[in-house]
Amino acid sequence: MMPPLAVALGDPAGIGPEIAAKAWMARESQDLHPFFAVGDVRSIETVWSGPVVRISDPDQAAAAFDHGLPVIQMEDAGPTMPGQPTLEGARCSLDSLEIAVGLARSGSAAAVVTGPVAKEQLYGIGFQHPGQTEFVAERCGV
C-alpha cells in the first residue's frame, strides 16, 4: 500500500490549515488517498472546529484518517491570527516543510504537498531560497 501524503501546512496564519481541513472533509466525496498534516494543530483549530487526531508517525495516518485530520504537531507557532504572519509562524512553517520532506525522502510519506508560506517572514528568519520548490529540490539533491 502506498504511504500517506505529507501536507506541510505552510504559514500558520495563512490558508494552508483551512485548505488541509477542507481537503479532509472532502476525503470521501473525492476518494482521497490518506494524508496527514505537519504543523501547529492550533493553526487548524483557529479556522476549523472539526476533528483533529494528533499522530506521532505517518504509519498512524491511515488508521486516523476516518476519524479526524491526522496531524504531526510541530512546535508552538505562538499566537496565530489569520492573515497576520509572524517570525514564529515562519519558523514553524519551515520546520514543517523540513519534516515533511524528510518523511517523503525516507519513504514514510508518498509525496509532499506544500501550503502557502509568507516569504517575507521566511526571509526574516534566514531562508535563502526563492521559494519552497527550490528548498525541496536542494533537500532532495536535485
Helix content: 25-40%
Query: What is the CA-based Rg, rounded?
Result: 14 Å
Tally of strands: 5
Shape: globular
Summed over residues and divided by their number, the pLDDT gives a mean of 96
State the separation between the terminal residues, measured CA to CA: 27 Å
Strand order of the largest sheet: 3-4-2-1-5
Q: Would you list the SSEs in sequence order as H and E?
A: EHEHEHEHEHH
Oligomer: single chain
Largest sheet: 5 strands, parallel
User: Which percent band covers the strand fraction?
Assistant: 5-15%
Structural class: alpha/beta
Number of helices: 6
Return residue spans where pLDDT drops below 50 for at least 5 consecutive residues: none
Please explain how this structure is put together.
The protein is α/β, with parallel strands linked by helices. About 40% of the residues lie in helices and about 15% in strands. It has six helices and five strands, in the order E-H-E-H-E-H-E-H-E-H-H. Strands 3-4-2-1-5 form a five-stranded parallel beta sheet, with helices on both faces. Helix 1 (about 15-25) links the parallel strand 1 (about 5-10) and strand 2. The longest helix has 20 residues, at about 85-105. The radius of gyration is 14 Å and the shape is globular. The mean pLDDT is about 95.
